[in-house]
Amino acid sequence: MSGLEPRPWIKNLDVYVGGKSHADGVQKVVKLSSNESALGSSPMAIQAYLDEAQKLHRYPDASYHDLRAALSEKYDINPAQIVCGIGSDEILKLACRAYIAPGDEVIFSRHSFMMYPIAAASFGGIPVEVDDTDYTTNVDNILAAITDRTRIIFLANPNNPTGTYICATEVERLWRNIPDSVLLVLDGAYAEFVAADDFQAGIELVKKARNVLMTRTFSKLYGLAALRLGWGYACPEVAAILDSIRDPFNLPSVTQAAGVAALKDQEFEARAKAHNLTWLNYLATELTAMGLEPITSVANFILIRFPDLKDKTAEAANDFLLAQGYILRWLPGQGLGHCLRLTVGTEEQNRDVIGLLKEFLGQ
To answer: What is the C-alpha separation between 165 and 158, in angstroms, rounded?
Structure first.
């Protein structure tokens, strides 16, 4: 009798590796590797979390009525078309679970979120990576990759880890040229940070489409990464399917309460956006002045391309910064071994990391 055997695609599944939180031999570190909030969490969200923690003996609202209502009010959308999950990652996996079978294809752009191929492969899907252009999604390349086995297209907009975006007209061009049988997933984890007039996160497209799913998260702008709260918005049919296959009670009460409060904390939201815009511009200017090549970003991080010099590589810079307790994200596994991704931090952290990079470069 043979032993237990997992599904063949599970045996070869990659494991998502998050940004480092520790540096060997360094007690006090500055973590700028995971695109977390520079300002911490919404104070209103923290208080709501503490208040709700007095009722931990109660099961959470399985329908997350109040959270759906708060999202509906903020974005003027139908609460019945909202599905929430343990981070937006869960929504991505629900989409794969619902719409792909073993052998089906899932398209995503090179240099995009590492969870896309993992989510697809975990259900037997075949990840199909297409080339981007200048670290930006190329719609024509996506369209050229569609076959009769394509079921899902993942589009991170803004893109992680490059920080680039494509405009609303390009997103709609993509949608209008895909088969009705393909689900377009618009991952807007960093959408709240974008100030460009030609950007849309996907709400308007969902309102007129039956094969578009927009996903969002509370981890970035609202600083609730530890609570793992994400949500999706789709047409009634898609939303109902995703809602039917999620786990019951998947969102703890404290998470729901914090999410509702965060949406109401307009002062924190405005302050977080202003801080990010100010220091993103500062970082881009300083990095360019020292001869590095920051990729233009609209998110809360910036991808830094290092020159092709023997002893001034991204890997060497990463080692130098780690020794000083500063943790950035080096991503050789994504074909970005020549780059470091830097999260926008506090004023002190931003100035310090610029000073350390100047020291590394001998300036």
So the answer is: 4
What is the DSSP-derived secondary structure letter of residue 37? -
Q: Residue 275 — φ and ψ, nearest 5°?
A: -60, -45
Closest CA to 360 of 304, 320, 305, 309: 320
Give the C-alpha separation, 254 to 80, whole Å.
22
- On whether the CB atoms of residues 91 and 85 are closer than 8 A, the answer is yes
**pTM for this model (two decimals):** 0.93
Q: Are 242 and 94 in contact (CB under 8 A)?
A: yes
Residue 278 C-alpha from the chain's centroid: 21
Find the distance separating the first CA and the last CA of the chain, reported in whole Å.
67
Coil, strand, or helix at residue 150? strand
Name residue 148's amino acid: D
The DSSP string of 186-252 is EE-TTGGG---TT---SHHHHHH-SSEEEEEESSSTT--GGG-EEEEEE-HHHHHHHHHHSPTT-S-
Contact 141, 173 (CB under 8 A): no
Domains of the chain: 8-40+267-361 (3.90.1150.10), 43-264 (3.40.640.10)
pLDDT tens, the chain, 363 aa long: 468 877 887 777 777 666 556 666 667 889 999 999 999 999 999 999 999 999 999 999 999 999 999 999 999 999 999 999 999 999 999 999 999 999 999 999 999 999 999 999 999 999 999 999 999 999 999 999 999 999 999 999 999 999 999 999 999 999 999 999 999 999 999 999 999 999 999 999 999 999 999 999 999 999 999 999 999 999 999 999 999 999 999 999 999 999 999 999 999 999 999 999 999 999 999 999 999 999 999 999 999 999 887 789 999 999 999 999 999 999 998 899 999 999 999 999 999 999 999 999 987
